[in-house]
Design goal:
Blueprint: H1 14-23
């Protein structure tokens, strides 16, 4: 059975965000924001390198 979780980016830096996803055993991250830009220079990571960084399981998992 698959689980669905939600998470926001505020309050995280890039590394702690990815760490939290790994701790929850997240294998696929879907970005469903209506607007893809998060305001503020401290969240530039959320607008760039998160895409594709979470897929940790085998292909198709």
């Amino acid at each position: 059975m698959h689980r669905m979780m939600t998470i926001g980016v505020y309050g995280f830096d890039g590394e702690s965000f990815l760490q939290r996803l790994r701790q929850a055993d997240v294998r696929l991250l879907l970005d469903v924001r209506q607007r893809r830009g998060v305001r503020g220079p401290e969240y530039a990571w959320a607008n760039s390198h998160v895409r594709g960084a979470v897929r940790t399981g085998p292909a198709g998992a």
